[in-house]
Predict the 3D structure of the following.
Amino acid sequence: MTAIEIGLHGAVVLAAFLQTITGIGFAMIAGPVILLALNDGSAVQITTLLSLLIAVVLAPGLRSRIDPPMLKQLSIGALAGLPFGIALFALVGVDLLKLIAGVTVGVLTALTLMIRRHEGAALRPASWGDWASGGVSGLFGGCLAMPGPTAAVRMNARNFDKMVTRATILAMFVLVYPLIFSAHALTVGVTRETLITSAILIPSTLAGVVIGHFAAPHVSERLFRNMVLVLLAATSVTLLVAGTGGLKGE
């Protein structure tokens, strides 16, 4: 196994671990690493399949914590934004995709920091904001396999309980990720190599889920959030540098 392959499996384990605890994180951590490792748009499809696997495993145990109105608004908004994300994925090259991912992760990291600084000052529960968040989630889901972060930022800003946020977002994944993958299959196609790579990464994904399940009660929320922010910032910088370098080399 090469160093790149070891790093890829390690990133998948870590990302699955983070998503098991918070409900988000897999696409933000593993997605960019897979994109950098493969240097190909198929990374989005692989991230979609593995994220769906995690959601299917975790969501049934959290059904009682789902917020139905929020789930409805986020999911329908995501369906509206999905075609635009698929179109963006089909039109841009992998290096521009890296830049988009880098900017996206960076902006979401900054928003998360802002929300933490004003914790307790919840946004008004305006439904248009929930619909809009869902739309952006669908856009990023289609082009980057990242529908979760925007929804999480919105729910955190409205001071939803952590478990409700986690359950609602995972339920949204179960509804949205199959549509994302189907849209990719119908528009740009899915290769045999993509499916093989996804299958190879399944054990690492499940390992991260198992570790996260047993570690969750022992992880300080404050320490965990700080660790996530550091990882997201590092991921954003890495993608921006790689994307910029690739575009300059063309």
